[in-house]
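Re: beginner question about structure tokens

> Can someone show what the tokenized structure looks like for a real chain? I only ever see the sequence side.

Sure, here's an example I had lying around. Input first:
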Amino acid sequence: MKRQEKGRGKLDIRVLFTLAAIAEILGTLLIATLLTALLENLLHEAIEVHPLVWLLLFGTTIGLTAAMVNVLLLRPVVRLSRAMKQVDSGNFDVRLTTNRVINEIADSYDSFNRMVEALGETETLQTDFVSNVSHEIKTPVSAIEGYTTLLQSTDVSPEQAGYIERILLNTRRLSTLVGNILLLSKVSNHTMPMKQT
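And the corresponding structure tokens:
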């Protein structure tokens, strides 16, 4: 129901092309009739229009129709293509607005805007999730590393010392991994200033 209300007052693309073809034919006839009448009035005699003149008028009308199609159809498609390239490069703040009278263009822009909004929300959720999970994992890993370090200072058997050393090594590796994930999250969010060296 909402889409039908939104589409009121706008043209379907098939209707637009049909109207353009009709306008082209009527425009050619009108221009030819006006030019013939003008020449007959100027020369004061009946003129028969040569087929090349008809061809010239028809070609001119086709050119004007192509220009109209370019304005009504191709420019919005080019804008949509440019916006898609921006989204492809990671810019989810792109929005498109139009006051075009063609349903398909308005619907495409609306769909694009909804898609970009959903992608932006997904990106934010993913980034927040990675950041939060990484931070939450870092806390218990640090606690395990601390307790393992304390165990090293106690008297234990050589076998237990080996186990403690492995636990400590792996907790440090895990801590480094979590730190790198947090760092990547900051870089991808552009919250960390880049320094070129």
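Each token stands for a local structural state, so reading them left to right follows the chain. The two ends are 58 Å apart (CA to CA).
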